[in-house]
Amino acid sequence: MAVKTFTEDQLDEWQDWYESLERAGSYHDPRYVAMLAGGFEQESESTEAFIYTTDDAFVYYPYIRRTLSALPFEADDVDVGEYSDIVSSWYYGGPVASTGADEETIDGFLEQFADYCRQENIVSEFVRFDPNLGNHATFDALNPHFNRETVRVDLTQSPDAIWDDFEKRNRNAIRQAQETDIVVESTTDLDDYAAFHDIYTNAMEAQDASKHYRFPLSFFEALLNEEDLATLSVARYDGKVIGGSFVVHDDDVAHDYLRASDPDYWDLRVNNLICYETLMQMREAGRKLFDFQGGRPGVFKFKRGFSKSGRREFHIAKQIHLDDAYDTLVNAAADSGIDTETGYFPAYRIEQSN
């Protein structure tokens, strides 16, 4: 048995462990996690990985670590600057077991990681499991619970079979868009990146979206620069970018990561066409699955139009590693005016979307 930990200063060695997994989603890729950390949810974030090894197997766990020094309150008997908490990669994360990992390996990982959190003053842990890997079932000792359904399209099917599994309303919308002059194409042009970023940012501002969903242009450019990690497809109309789909992927699975369009063109059903053309591009590139992920009710209704049958369950887990410190922080947060009764975890932080 051995334990290894990595930070973003050790990405090459960390990458070797990631690539040695038979199955691991792109959200577990250290390059992605490193780019995500540093302003994703909180100002002070860093990326880390914890790896527990035995002679024949290992457990791989990347996450984002957040110092508590920026909390907007002080707590009696707790120097918040000495503590931190952790959160999974986004959209999906959680620990991943290698081939050959048995129950003893899983139990050993859980014990060693809990010890590590206590030694490192990590107060709490929020886990987003990966429904495509089903790692919530492997780590059921973390008490995962169902959060929402996700929508997925099996790209190994024929184009006709994929089309037939769309809801009728969606097929009609796509046909309507195909009768216009909208063209959807993948791009590596920096001007297209900037145009899509403007549309996406305007959409987030219109929705008053949390910081969780807001990204600087530099993040778009950095992620899209890794061509095996991400692809941007844009919709053009009369030569103008009117929307796009930012897809994160590995060799097998493509994720509907960020998507937005100009509201002035919604009547042309541009969103339906963007999704259709993008998932077909991913099929042509040889990927086996298009994951639309989940969303609030209105968003989910739109996504399920692309698959009447493809569903998975998204699970989350909440862990408290330092009970006394957690309770002290929650009480201090409540005294400072933070609503700690919303169900948001950890309760001592100002609510962001999970």
End-to-end distance, in Å?
Answer: 34 Å
Which spans have pLDDT < 50 for at least 5 consecutive residues? none
Shape, per Cα inertia axes: globular
Percent of residues in beta strands? Answer: 25-35%
The CATH architecture of the largest domain would be 3-Layer(aba) Sandwich
Question: What do these coordinates show?
Answer:
By secondary structure, the protein is α+β, with helices and mostly antiparallel strands. The protein folds into two domains: about 1-140 and about 320-335, Aminopeptidase; about 150-310, Gcn5-related N-acetyltransferase (GNAT) (Aminopeptidase), CATH 3.40.630. It is about 35% helix and about 25% strand. The chain has helices at about 10-20, 30-35, 105-120, 135-140, 160-165, 170-180, 190-205, 215-225, 270-285, 295-305, 325-335, and strands at about 1-5, 45-55, 60-65, 85, 95, 120-130, 145-155, 185, 230-235, 240-250, 255-260, 290-295, 310-320. Strands 1, 2, 3, 4, 5, 6, 7, 8, 9, 10, 11, 12 and 13 form a 13-stranded mixed beta sheet that branches. A hairpin with a 2-residue loop joins strand 9 (about 230-235) and strand 10 (about 240-250). The mean pLDDT is about 95.
